[in-house]
Amino acid sequence: MIKYKKIRIGKKYIEALWVRLQRKNLILLRGAKGYVMCGYLNLSAAQMFKDAAVKITGVSTIEEALKASVHSLSHPARKLGISKGQPIKDVLRIIA
User: Fold this and answer.
1) What is the pLDDT, as a whole number, of residue 40?
2) Tens digit of pLDDT for each residue in 38-95?
3) What CATH code would you report for 2-95?
4) Phi then psi for 68, rounded to 5 degrees?
5) Residue 96: strand, helix, or coil
6) Which of 18, 21, 65, 78 has its CA 20 to 30 A from that of 27?
7) Is 47 in contact with 74 (CB distance < 8 Å)?
């Protein structure tokens, strides 16, 4: 099963994707400047491609992802002003 929705952040939108996999869920929140990913996705690969990426953990729904905070992040995400422990709602304003 796959769920997709757009989330309004001010005058911009974030795309939210939820995919049910065999044991866990894959979650991705994508903005124009970067994205938030769950632990299923690879932060090292995001770093290699110079993506502004933020990793969250312990979430299984889009709603939980929106309440999470930054677990780890790529160097390009740091350059945008994002930091470890920052609430994802603040991150979304930056990457939207």
Assistant:
1) 86
2) 988 999 999 999 999 999 999 999 999 999 999 999 999 999 999 999 999 999 999 9
3) 3.30.1980.10
4) -80, 175
5) coil
6) 78
7) yes
Q: How far is CA 49 from its chain centroid?
A: 16
Question: Rounded CA gap, 23 and 83, in Å?
Answer: 30
Tokens standing for 13? 């939108």
b/e string for 20-45 if b means 16 or more Cβ within 10 A? eeeeebbbbbbbeebbbbbbeeebee
- Could you give the 3-state DSSP secondary structure of residue 26? strand
Sequence-distant (6+) residues with CB within 8 A of 58 are 64, 68
Backbone angles phi, psi at 46, to 5 degrees: -60, -40
Report the SS3 class of residue 64: helix
Residue 23, pLDDT score: 87
